[in-house]
Design a protein that fits this description.
3 helices, Nucleoside Triphosphate Pyrophosphohydrolase, alpha+beta
Length: 159
């Protein structure tokens, strides 16, 4: 069986001192009190025949309630999570007010193996972070996406 693949979008914006990135915190009781190392880029599973960038844009919309910017995205390559899943990252410049972000919902069994179902938001909040803080908050395997973004931006003209 092939390892699962997800694709996600790292939204970034330039501020007076550099760059900030938008991260998503997973919803639900399991993640409620987890912070450092728990955040992610908005992402979702790639199904057979889907284009990875299309999946990243779709998942960004589903997990924030906002359309992904229509401008060109930068490829951030892929990473492998501890679970064995691969995540393909893309970065796009844009703006989003975290207070106006609304995630889609999903149903989970909670507590595990209890047979009880509950509906939760896939993402309970999004926030802007400067690179150092983003690296601390992100799932450790995904923190390299911040470094790759900063490297790519050195080669991209502003404006």
């Amino acid at each position: 069986m092939a390892s699962k693949r997800s694709s996600g979008l790292l939204l970034y914006r330039r501020n007076g001192t550099g760059v900030e990135v938008l991260l998503a915190h997973p919803g639900g009781p399991f993640w409620l009190h987890r912070d450092e190392g728990a955040w992610s880029i908005p992402k979702g599973e790639v199904e057979l025949g889907e284009e990875e960038l299309d999946v990243a844009r779709r998942e960004f919309h589903e997990e924030t309630g906002h359309e992904a910017p229509s401008r060109q995205c930068l490829s951030l390559g892929e990473v492998r999570l501890k679970s064995g899943k691969y995540v393909v990252g893309w970065a796009c410049e844009g703006e989003l007010d975290p207070a106006k972000a609304v995630s889609n919902k999903t149903t989970v069994e909670w507590p595990p193996r209890s047979g009880r179902q509950m509906t939760i938001p896939e993402v309970d909040r999004v926030e802007w972070f400067e690179p150092d803080e983003a690296r601390r908050r992100l799932n450790p395997a995904q923190s390299v996406f911040v470094d790759r973004l900063l490297e790519r931006l050195e080669d991209v003209p502003t404006g």
